[in-house]
Specification:
- By secondary structure, the protein is α/β, with parallel strands linked by helices.
- It contains six helices and five strands; from the N terminus they run βββαβαβαααα.
- It has one domain: Nucleotidyltransferase, domain 5 (2-Layer Sandwich), CATH 3.30.420.
- Helix 1 packs parallel to helix 2, helix 3 packs across helix 4 and helix 3 packs across helix 5.
- The longest helix is centred in the middle third of the chain and has 21 residues.
C-alpha cells in the first residue's frame, strides 16, 4: 500500500510517501511544498492547492493520511493552517482518494508507542522503522513521514479491521 502522509502548513507543507507491505516500510519520496512569506495569503493557498494536486497525480498514493489541527497559543496561525488544510483536503477529495486523519498524539502512539513522546523520539523511531541513516529535512517532511507510518501501523491493526467491517455493514 502506498501511503502519502501530509503535515499541513501554509509556509511549509511536508509530505512523505511510503510503501507499506506486511509490516515492512520503505520511504519512496518526501519533501515540502513551500510558499514565500510576505506574499498575498490567497496566492499562497493557490500554490498549495496546485502543488498538492500535482503531487497526488505523480505520487499515485492508495491513501492519504493527514494530521488533524492542534491549536496552541497562536490562534491566528491556527486559522491560517486550517485554511491551508482546507485546500489540501479539497485536492484529496477531488482526486477521489481515501483519507485518514490523525491527531498528533495518535501519531506518537502509533510510531513510538507512547502518546506523549517527544519530537526527537518520533523522528528517531521513524528513522529506525525505515532503516534510514538520518531523518530527511525539513522537519515538516519528517513529520509527514511519521503520519504515513501512523496510518500504516494503525490501519493494519485488528481493531482497525473490525471497525472497517462494521462500517461496510452499516453498523
Amino acid at each position: 500500500m502506498r501511503i502519502l502522509g501530509i503535515d499541513p502548513g501554509y509556509g511549509i507543507t511536508g509530505f512523505g510517501l511510503i510503501e507499506a507491505q506486511a509490516g515492512r516500510y520503505q520511504l519512496l519520496s518526501c519533501g515540502a511544498i513551500t510558499t514565500p512569506p510576505n506574499t498575498e495569503f490567497s496566492w499562497r493557498l493557490e500554490v498549495i492547492y496546485n502543488d498538492m494536486t500535482q503531487l497526488l497525480q505523480t505520487a499515485k498514493p492508495d491513501v492519504v493520511a493527514i494530521e488533524e489541527l492542534f491549536f496552541g497559543q497562536n490562534v491566528t496561525t491556527g486559522i491560517n493552517v486550517a485554511q491551508s488544510r482546507g485546500v489540501i483536503l479539497l485536492s484529496i477529495r477531488q482526486a477521489g482518494l481515501p483519507l485518514a486523519e490523525y491527531k498528533p498524539m495518535q501519531v506518537k502512539q502509533a510510531v513510538v508507542g507512547y502518546g506523549s513522546a517527544t519530537k526527537h523520539q518520533v523522528q528517531d523511531m521513524t528513522r529506525r522503522l525505515l532503516g534510514l541513516q538520518c531523518m530527511p529535512k525539513p522537519d515538516d517532511a519528517a513529520d509527514a513521514i511519521a503520519i504515513a507510518l501512523c496510518h500504516a501501523r494503525s490501519s493494519t491493526s485488528l481493531l482497525a479491521k473490525a471497525a472497517a467491517q462494521c462500517r461496510s455493514r452499516g453498523i
